[in-house]
Specification:
Elements lengths: L2 H20 L7 E5 L5 H9 L4 E4 L2 H10 L6 E4 L8 H7 L2 E5 L2 H10 L7 E7 L15 H9 L4 E8 L7 H20 L6 E3 L6 H7 L3 E4 L1 H4 L5
Parallel strand pairs: 1-2, 1-8, 2-3, 3-4, 4-5, 5-6, 6-7
Helix pairs in contact: 1-8, 4-5, 7-8
Length: 228
């Protein structure tokens, strides 16, 4: 068994164990491989092991790898901070955008998404702990952004994404993820047809799964060390 296979098996086992502890099925969780600063061959190797969803946060790097891997049936997620002058390329080359946090970006993505590609899947990024150094909408602004997304053509609101404060304290992890889940449930209660709660990374996926995450984003623990 090679290193990629061993790392993937380890992550899948962690997800399975977290689901068992939470009374959930492992099949409820999508594994998003965060491939930033990883080369195309590593992505191809994981694809051969069954992974199809890959997340990138640097546009030009992502576009280069998409060209290199265009023969593969991959699903590309943009997960980085979005600059207004990059929205057209993002709208044209990704299937998902997980980091929508303001009105201008949302409108530009909708207007610039080619209709022939079908709706662009959107997650609203929530700055759940209101950390000034992080992107993401204030939790109080999420209902307004959701209403706007629901009224736009060429995009489909799928749910929420969050990156809580970095901590090893499991109770603090649970508390932050629980607050994201409450916002998600409020949107469901308001009638939005959403199905994705993207939260949890290598250090906190267990707490995220316990809180109801449907997608975890794993980078180094899956690929190994990143290129400098």
């Amino acid at each position: 068994m090679n290193n990629a296979s061993m790392r993937l098996q380890s992550i899948r086992q962690r997800i399975a164990d977290a689901c068992a502890a939470a009374g959930r099925e492992a099949g409820e969780i999508t594994l998003l491989a965060v491939s930033k600063r990883q080369d195309a061959e590593k992505i191809s190797a994981l694809n051969r092991l069954g992974l199809t969803a890959f997340g990138e946060n640097q546009l030009q790097e992502a576009l280069r790898k998409q060209r290199q891997l265009e023969s593969l049936a991959l699903e590309w997620h943009f997960i980085g901070t979005i600059q207004s002058n990059k929205t057209r390329a993002i709208a044209e080359h990704f299937q998902w955008v997980q980091s929508v946090d303001r009105q201008r970006v949302l409108e530009r993505l909708a207007n610039q998404r080619p209709a022939a590609l079908g709706p662009l899947n959107i997650l609203l990024q929530v700055n759940i702990d209101r950390e000034p150094q992080k992107a993401g909408a204030d939790p109080r602004a999420v209902p307004q952004l959701a209403a706007m997304a629901a009224g736009l053509a060429n995009v489909r609101l799928r749910g929420l994404m969050a990156i809580p404060r970095l901590t090893c304290d499991r109770d603090q992890q649970r508390e932050s993820f629980h607050r994201v889940r409450l916002i998600y449930e409020e949107l469901l209660g308001a009638g939005y047809e959403i199905d994705t709660l993207s939260m949890g990374m290598s250090a906190d996926l267990e707490a995220a799964v316990e809180a109801g995450s449907t997608m975890v984003r794993i980078g180094t623990d899956l690929f190994g060390p990143r290129e400098p």
